[in-house]
Design goal:
alpha/beta; 6-phosphogluconate dehydrogenase C-terminal fold; 50% helix; elongated
């Protein structure tokens, strides 16, 4: 197939590199910054430097852009996408983008299948992209009304690129779980490093500090957008986290060792039950 990847940051760049390393597909790179495309071509991550006109040649279009930018790009260039081509995104939130992209798919005649690669790094940009980024990762698909043939094609493509598994779900369930598994840890990490003690942690910290603070090296523009797009599920998870922190705080304040032990043991058993 001919696959066009729009946006060659860490996600788009990793898609390009994985496609070239592990598949025989032809990769067209489309990016706002031309120097990035030249680097990708030199690296062998793409076969061709494309423009929006190149969308007419693509069997699959991967929009590796911020959610709002993906919609804007499609609104502007959707008439160039080949009729019947499969278009997918890489957005971390689905309830906002799926209805809008479905509407655009009906307008322009392409097939939209929502997707979300569950992998990344704390760094961003093409220089951070890696063909092996998807190894062991889950690829989430939200069909958003697309037929089984398109879903199966995208699932097979994900496995070709090195994803360990493909999970199908709907936008609502996706966003609810992402609030817990991805967004909440980012909020927690950022809140954690805002402590005045953080600036003096060196020499006092080891694995625990690194584990909790790792994702605080955050892309503030992207994650602000994602937090707000998923605010209702995220707020619910934040309320649960706050209640649990208050429960532990109250037990410590009351010098209630038995209650502290009960809460910590409940947490340990939860992790144990998951086999983690």
């Amino acid at each position: 197939m001919k696959i066009a990847v729009v946006g060659l940051g860490i996600i788009g760049g990793s898609f390009c590199k994985a496609l070239k390393k592990y598949t025989d597909h032809y990769v067209i790179g489309i990016n706002r910054t031309h120097s990035t495309l030249e680097t990708a071509l030199h690296d062998g991550a793409i076969d061709e430097i494309g423009t929006p006109d190149s969308l007419a040649e693509a069997d699959v279009v991967i929009l590796a852009l911020y959610p709002g930018a993906a919609i804007e790009f499609t609104e502007k260039y959707g008439d160039k996408i080949r009729k019947g081509a499969i278009v997918t995104d890489s957005s971390g939130i689905k309830r906002e983008i799926c209805p809008k992209m479905r509407e655009l798919s009906r307008k322009f005649g392409f097939v939209f299948v929502g997707s979300h690669p569950m992998a990344g790094k704390e760094t961003s940009g093409y220089s951070s992209s890696d063909a092996r980024l998807w190894h062991g990762a889950s690829y989430i698909i939200t069909p958003c009304g697309a037929g089984s043939e398109a879903v199966e094609l995208l699932s097979s493509l994900a496995l070709e690129m090195g994803f360990a598994s493909v999970k199908l779900t709907n936008p609502e369930e996706h966003d609810r779980m992402i609030a817990f598994t991805s967004q909440l840890p980012h909020v927690l990490a950022c809140a954690y490093v805002l402590s005045p003690c953080c600036m003096n942690h060196k020499g006092f910290s080891a694995g625990s500090y690194k584990d909790v603070s790792r994702v605080a090296n955050i892309n503030a523009k992207l994650w602000s957008e994602l937090f707000l797009e998923n605010r209702e599920p995220l707020i619910e998870e934040l309320k649960i986290l706050k209640d649990n922190i208050i429960a532990i705080t109250d037990a410590i304040t009351a010098n209630d060792k038995a209650e502290i032990e009960r809460l910590l043991e409940k947490a340990r058993k939860t992790k144990e039950a998951l086999g983690e």
